[in-house]
What does this fold into?
Amino acid sequence: MTTLHDFAVWLAHSPLNAAVTGPSWLVPEIQVVHIVAIAAVVIASTLINLRALGLAETDLPQQTVVRTWARVIVIAVAVLAATGILLVVSEPGRALFRTVFWVKLGLIATALAVTAAQGRTGPVPTAASRALAIASLLLWVGVIFAGRWIAYAEGWPGAFS
Amino acid sequence: MSLEDIANSLATTWLAETLTDSTWLFGVVEAVHVMALTLVFGSIALVDLRLIGLAQRHRDADTLVRQLLPLTWGGFALAAISGTTMIFANPHGYFDNTFFRAKMVALVLAGLNVLLFHYVVQPRAHAADAPKSSNTLGQRLSGGISLLLWLTIITCGRWIGFTI
It folds into this structure.
């Protein structure tokens, strides 16, 4: 735990922390960009998943829908990673010391693995692609809940603000 | 009945007491609100980008709207219910908050923009008989104004959390 604590203290004294926490409006605006990128992931994965379940975009082949929206997910996740790192740096004693933050990262990795698996599906949804779609929907809902829960969870020893 | 009276009566309801007594319930409602708003914003932004001509240009705007409308309305209903619930936790705080007020004004303007799009812009675009892939000036303006209003709504919403 001391290694994590040392790392967080180092981040707290880094020039990037000073830059991000300098203007008081910057962190809320980074959060707005983070939310807009979440919206991109949500709409993209929802369309892929509803296509697999036969509930939307049924006029297009499944692969076309996956190919179009997986690209959006990749770009949005890159934006989320960049803004997420800035948010962690702005308050290094917070997210890193909460179990739910690491659960969130695990859920994101799993959701992206599911998206990658969806990329290998055929033109017509099968039972497997329907199962992947339901898993993906639940995983992204989990990611959003876990993200919001960082603000409510109890921190580990060594957490600071 | 003033806004103050409404806030007073909301603050003494069962829902208000339940929300303020619980340490986690407000968080759950917030998480639902985030999920709902990403669904609303994601689907609306996609249509807006199509109208501006920046996405999905190979598809007819009407088809896209028809595909996405259930998501937009489903998300909006969920956002409205969760958002209204959040007000009960601190009605005076919200009603007195400048960002909350600005957000409500932007929501009304976004609603008017939708009505204008539906009853004026789209009928004119159809009457103009232009190729479906091109956008009329009205459509591009509709999309641009909608995008700006919804970004304002999200920004104000996020700022409420810092100023309430």
Summary: The two ends of chain A are 17 Å apart (CA to CA). Chain A has a mean pLDDT of 94.
